[in-house]
Design goal:
Layout: E1 4-5, H1 24-35, E2 43-44, H2 51-54, H3 60-67, H4 73-79, H5 85-108, E3 110-113, H6 134-144, E4 151-155, H7 162-167, E5 174-181, E6 194-198, H8 204-221, E7 226-230, H9 248-264, E8 269-272, H10 281-299
Parallel strand pairs: 1-2, 1-3, 3-8, 4-5, 4-7, 5-6, 7-8
Length: 300
């Protein structure tokens, strides 16, 4: 059964004119229900993880500053969001959604978080619309609970997963793979276990060949027993922040490659949304919805 984490907190209101498209968190579940990809029974509302799972990944000092809203002005500016209690609550709720989706993935082979993919959050700070790193928190939870021992994070957002790379830079249990725009944010890249930096205007054919080749390369040296997939759609040619040139068909084929890779090696997959900033919200929703449709085709 397809299980999808969603919460009203995901669509946290932001000041007028803020460029982050919070409305996609409401529109995507509506689209999935409208087209019959998912019904109400497929969605679950996450609650809140105990603090111990947050500080198992993030430094306690950072969490305390976040919880008490005592980040400095420069620290707040780096995150891109105006800091508030409700925003921190949202971030904890997202991390819980990813953890609980991962537990469902163990049961059903694949599961989703409508939000998540907050890969710019470091162990000691937030950046780029990310305060807590749900990918890292989920990975450490799975390891601690003995639900996985070899985790592969496939990060295909157009921006490098710099926070995730920093958190797991010395890990042998978590392999970080980021395929991203080389000249895009962040300008200073951290070192993942495998980084593929792409030039501006990279098209479908080049992208998909690189993805296939590098997944095979990873498999030859690190066979995972769990996959976390950051399926950002800011790789689209229409994306105002992306600078790559993938089509909707290219994004669908990308998602198909990843899902079939996981299915082929019998590794559960937890997928989270990641970025998407095309001017037309329809393009964002259409691109995100494809991976849910594929999950039904491939796993159910």
């Amino acid at each position: 059964m397809l299980k999808i984490a969603w919460s009203p907190l995901y669509a946290h209101p932001l000041p007028a004119g803020h460029r982050f498209p919070m409305d996609k968190y409401t529109l995507l579940p509506e689209q999935l229900k409208y087209e019959g990809t998912a019904g109400s029974e497929n969605f679950f509302e996450p609650d809140f993880i105990p603090v111990k799972y947050i500080v198992n990944t993030h430094q306690p000092e950072y969490w305390e500053k976040l919880r008490s809203l005592s980040l400095s002005k420069s620290e707040i500016r780096r995150t891109g969001f105006p800091l508030s209690n409700s925003l921190v609550e949202r971030e904890v709720n997202i991390a819980t959604g990813s953890i609980q989706a991962a537990e469902y993935a163990k049961q059903f082979g694949i599961a989703f978080n409508i939000a998540g993919g907050t890969h710019h959050a470091f162990s000691d700070r937030g950046e780029g619309f990310c305060l807590l790193n749900d990918l890292a928190i989920t990975s450490n939870y799975l390891l601690e609970k003995n639900l996985a021992s070899r985790i592969l994070i496939i990060d295909l957002d157009v921006h490098q997963g710099n926070g995730t790379a920093e958190i797991f830079q010395n890990s042998k249990e978590v392999f970080t793979f980021s395929m991203h725009g080389q000249s895009n944010y962040p300008m200073h890249k951290e070192k993942s276990h495998l980084d593929i930096g792409l030039p501006d205007k990279t098209n479908d054919d080049t992208y998909l060949k690189l993805l296939k080749d590098n997944l095979l390369k990873i498999q030859s040296q690190f066979t995972p027993d769990f996959i976390l997939y950051q399926s950002g759609v800011d790789v689209l040619g229409s994306d105002k922040l992306g600078r790559l040139s993938l089509t909707q068909d290219g994004v669908r084929e990308r998602d198909k490659i990843v899902l079939e890779f996981g299915k082929g090696i019998q590794s559960p997959i937890m997928c989270c949304m990641g970025g998407g900033y095309s001017p037309r919200i329809k393009d964002i929703i259409d691109a995100h919805a494809q991976v849910y449709r594929l999950a039904n085709e491939i796993f159910f």
